[in-house]
Amino acid sequence: MQFLYSGLTTGSIYTLVAIGFNIIYNTTGIINFAQGEFVMLGGMFIYTALHFLNFPIYISFIVALISAFILGMIAERIFFNSIKIKTEINLITITLALAIILRGASMIIWGRDSLKVDPYITEKTVAMPGGVLTTSSLLVIVVSIVVAIILSFFFKFTKYGKAFRACHNDPYAASNCGINVNKIKMLSFAIAATIGCIAGILITPITFVTYNDGIMTGLKGFSAAIFGGLGRFSGAIVGGYFLAIAESFFASILPSGYKDAFAFIILLIILFALPNGILGKKKAERV
After folding, report:
1. Alpha helices of the chain — where are they, by DSSP H?
2. Are 185 and 167 in contact (CB under 8 A)?
3. Where exactly are the transmembrane stretches of this chain (predicted)?
4. Structural fold of domain 1-273
5. What DSSP assignment string belongs to 53-72?
6. Is the distance from CB of 241 to CB of 247 less than 8 angstroms?
7. How far apart are CA 143 and CA 141, in angstroms?
8. Residue 268 — pLDDT band, cuts 50, 70, 90?
9. pTM of the entire structure?
10. Domain regions of the chain by residue span
11. Confidence of residue 287 (pLDDT cuts 50, 70, 90)
12. Is pLDDT above 50 for 254?
């Protein structure tokens, strides 16, 4: 059971990262490989607000989230909106370049050392059936579930959420219906960056943060999104938790060096057997 509890904490982070991938993909069709860097930046932002600016904890959260939101908008305007020829290869290359730039800038600003943030709530151990959870882990799980529910409701049932989906399904028809497609695309990057920032804020007191944390976190989140079905919110949740729980279990019986490889083995199996993911739907093509 302890492997399950450990997996739930990590799975909550994978789920948020996978949701970030889905938000941008559902709106623009782009797979943003820089998504993991916003998780790292969330940790850096909250560290800076708490320890350099000495803001109260609630103000620090708001400052970190607003910073990520603005950075997401700027990234979309500079790196994606201004490009002239938007082929898949060009866009993927740009997301990789953005990730490298964010990582390099973070190393220059915050250095190479691991940065520590104190727990946001009093650290206690909570006894669970067959294991224990810390209060920090419970906070990660609860906040992640709440964020996933709010986002799912927003994109399914609100006017603005439907506008996001319309932009992906048919941007020309959406534009003719009065939807500002460019603005929606910019907001998708901003929201995805904010979701990544939330994941970074939540996990930093548990794992600390360094400038290169975003690489593996982003790839694991991408694997979770593919596993569940790229573009599916429910798939992101299923994929995130399954991947993390399975990873936690196999790390207990295999050498620790295989832990990170496990996510990619799962990814390859899914791509071979179920290219659309376990909850993904095969798209019909008009001929």
Report:
1. 2-28, 35-47, 57-75, 88-110, 135-157, 159-169, 171-176, 181-207, 213-228, 233-253, 259-273
2. yes
3. 12-35, 55-79, 91-111, 131-155, 189-211, 231-254, 261-279
4. ABC transporter involved in vitamin B12 uptake, BtuC (1.10.3470)
5. S---HHHHHHHHHHHHHHHH
6. no
7. 6
8. confident
9. 0.89
10. 1-273
11. very low
12. yes
